Inverse folding.
């Protein structure tokens, strides 16, 4: 139960929960039987991050990204990443106008509140790298001129497993800019049967309507930023990421950006649960989605058949969980 706060001094947790519930309900009419995936997507939205959806073709990756985008009345652009896609297609290009005898900037696909990057790892690494500046700094620089991207700005990218034909591995720098990665997985039998009936005549995505707008999302992101994170919880977040860097089974651990993303996601997760303070359990629950795509196992670990998920699970079990609720009222 969230503690009461004076008006204007803290996040409006009730508003956050109400809006999230409306968006979640809409998403679940499109993506059935995967509530945990929808919740993670909403955590990333409220934390102001970017989401990477990875799985085999045909399980609803693009459908999830479109459902989240349609739930918000804001600008949405879709970029289909292909091997012949150019960086200028993503960021924009300056074109000479013979009438004005001057160069004009034509914005690329990233100039929107929500950018759906479909099959991002089918483009060349050079084109993928065009996303680095906009994802981290919310701006694009073309021909020496910087153009700022309007908030909220969220990239929802889908990718196929690297083993699939025609894919390129995402650069480590780009993977690190995604706050979380989720996998759709195959639906359960009941959900797949329900999908057949629901889409017999019309796609549920076509009937999905926006339940919030960009201005409200901006206010919710600002509200989530005020959720309290105690020093003990901060130390716990640092201990988790530090443990990945010291692990003998990993050749690349979590970056300081990963620590920031973990705490930011924890704030959003707490607000969605009706709290204005973060618990260690929030970080533990989110750690697999926030950290696993940033970690690289050693060659010996990979040959031994140990997955990143298993290594991270062992780290979560080994790092001591701090005592206390995480509430700022504790210890007063």
């Amino acid at each position: 139960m969230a503690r009461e706060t004076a008006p204007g001094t803290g996040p409006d947790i009730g508003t956050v929960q109400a809006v999230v519930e409306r968006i979640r309900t809409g998403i679940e009419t499109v993506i059935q039987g995967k509530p945990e995936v929808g919740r993670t997507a909403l955590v990333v939205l409220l934390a102001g991050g970017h989401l990477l959806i990875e799985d085999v073709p045909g399980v609803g990756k693009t459908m999830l990204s479109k459902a989240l985008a349609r739930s918000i009345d804001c600008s949405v652009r879709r970029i289909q990443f292909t091997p012949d896609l150019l960086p200028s297609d993503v960021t924009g290009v300056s074109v000479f106008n013979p009438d004005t005898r001057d160069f004009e900037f034509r914005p690329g696909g990233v100039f929107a509140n929500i950018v759906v990057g479909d099959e991002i790892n089918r483009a060349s690494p050079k084109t993928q790298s065009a996303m680095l500046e906009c994802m981290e700094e919310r701006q694009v620089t073309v021909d020496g001129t910087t153009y700022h991207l309007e908030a909220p700005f969220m990239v929802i990218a889908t990718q196929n497993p690297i083993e699939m034909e025609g894919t390129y591995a995402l650069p480590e720098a780009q993977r690190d800019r995604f706050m979380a990665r989720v996998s759709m997985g195959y639906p359960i039998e009941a959900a797949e049967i329900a999908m057949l009936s629901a889409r017999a005549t019309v796609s549920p995505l076509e009937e999905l309507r926006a339940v919030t707008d960009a201005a409200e999302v901006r206010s919710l992101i600002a509200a989530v930023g005020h959720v309290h994170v105690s020093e003990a919880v901060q130390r716990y977040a640092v201990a988790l990421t530090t443990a990945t860097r010291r692990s003998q089974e990993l050749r690349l651990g979590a970056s300081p950006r990963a620590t920031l993303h973990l705490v930011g996601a924890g704030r959003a997760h707490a607000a969605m649960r009706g709290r204005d303070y973060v618990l260690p359990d929030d970080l533990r629950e989110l750690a697999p989605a926030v950290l696993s795509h940033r970690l690289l196992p050693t060659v010996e670990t990979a040959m031994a058949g140990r997955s990143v998920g298993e290594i991270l699970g062992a780290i979560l079990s080994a790092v001591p969980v701090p005592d206390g609720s995480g509430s700022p009222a504790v210890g007063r």
The longest strand covers residues 92-97. The chain is about 45% helix and 15% strand. The longest helix spans residues 13-30.
